[in-house]
Amino acid sequence: MATIATSLAFLSALSLAPSHADESTFRLKNANGRDLVATKCITCHSLDYIPMNSKFLDRKGWDAEVRKMIKAMGAPINPDEAATIVEYLSKNYGRDNPPD
Amino acid sequence: MRILFLLVALTAVAAPTLPQGAIEESALETLPGKKPLIKRTYRPPNYESPVEYFDQVFTPNDKFFVRYHLSDIPKLNLKIWRLTVGGEAAGKPVTFTAAQLKHDFKQVEVAALAFCSGNRRGLFNPHVPGVQWANGAMGNARWKGVRLRDVLERAGIKKEALEVVFDGADGPVNDKTPDFKKSIPLAKALDDNTIIAFEMNGKPLHQSQGFPARIVVPGWTATYWVKHVVSIEIVSKSFDGFWMKTAYRIPKGKFPAVEGHWPGQETDTSVPITEIAVSSLITNIREDQHLRSGHAFQIKGLAWDGGHGISKVEFSSDGGKTWQLATLGLDYGKYSWRQFTSRFTPAQPGSFTIMTRATNSVGATQGNELVANPAGYHNNVIHSLIVTAD
After folding, report:
1. Taking the model in full, what pTM does it have?
2. pLDDT tens-place string over residues B253-296
3. Beta bridge partners of B316
4. Residue B7: in which H helix or E strand, if any?
5. Where do the domains of chain A lie, and which CATH numbers do they carry?
6. Residue B225 maps to which CATH number?
7. Which residues of chain B lie closer than 8 angstroms to A45, CB-CB?
8. C-alpha dihedral over B154, B155, B161, B163, to 10 degrees?
9. Which residues contact A44 (CB under 8 A, 6 or more apart)?
10. Contact A61/B35, CB-based, under 8 Å?
């Protein structure tokens, strides 16, 4: 118990407290395209994959991720939808200031 | 002298951190039957151990990391679970119950590190996409089961056999998503240490560790340690599923210390990740921790590699200018990680960059520079932390 107490004390120092939350409490940023992103992505995986991978991808990086989901993972997303999704992800979860 | 201390502080380079979004999304969550783990993703479930859990040589089952690729994860019933062993290069395909496997074959136990290929991906700079693991997608355990070789021999290994393919009961929710199947070369499958494990640290596998049986491939990254295994095929051609041909690849020639020879799975530019790279981790101290100057502090940590065995661990408290040998803990076998300790007495107040560097028995060691690769594998850069002595 001492170990656990120490661990928890340490973890709370990182402002992490144990919880029993689940993915239903998660909300993507509210912006154009959010509902489409949520509907398409949530079929196969929780939406926390998106903020976890932020903010370091530029538009090209998010485009590659969406393509991978379509081509490799078989996500049922048409080209128009893909464009909307990439736009939403790069605007809301993309790198703020892409270097030249 | 104060100026000197200031310089030390200024030249100390901050340790790499997770992407900001991953930090914000980190949460301690308690899965059924588990202690709190750091949630990376809910579904499929990906959870890593806080480094504080690595204070024991064998990671308790309820503190072990959880990694899945696909979201349809059944709970298998041991009574109706079956393992089929077949494939076109098997002479006599056979199906086993758990009781048959345990009764018919010698049971063996191996201490081995389960190490996620993407461990420390989140600490890449620049960041690369994927599950943003910090240091906790690994754990060391005693795995007990039967030798894969013995089971394969029962099914008959034809002379044209080339690889052995594993499939678990977990699968995709979308039938267009490639099922998670992995192969290993026949030679690795026939290795004495490669087993079909039913137990972990003396207890049946936890659901999240692949109940009732998983493959254990000591020395190789955990991508091959297929959980909930239900099918094993002996095949005469290199298996070309997505998770072999496209995923889990490293650039050819960039990791000479751990690049195996696997002609059937190589392309001109890439090879499958296989062996775990030599590395080390300080486990009882955290970034920005304050220590008392003039007082001895015992640094504790772990060192590991892909099965050659750790020959030494060095510790530095001056950012890598000078090194001292750490004391190695008991040797639990070449596939287990190795504990180490080192004494550190900050001579004066100030900032110190502390580091560890492991070397294995074939001379492979850790460097200062990250080797870039698209999937973020083999981040075995020297682990450094900045601490302050008051």
Report:
1. 0.93
2. 999 999 999 999 999 999 999 999 999 999 999 988 999 999 99
3. B355
4. helix B2-11
5. 22-93 (1.10.760.10)
6. 3.90.420.10
7. 41, 43-44, 71
8. -90
9. A73, A75, B71, B172, B173, B174, B177
10. no
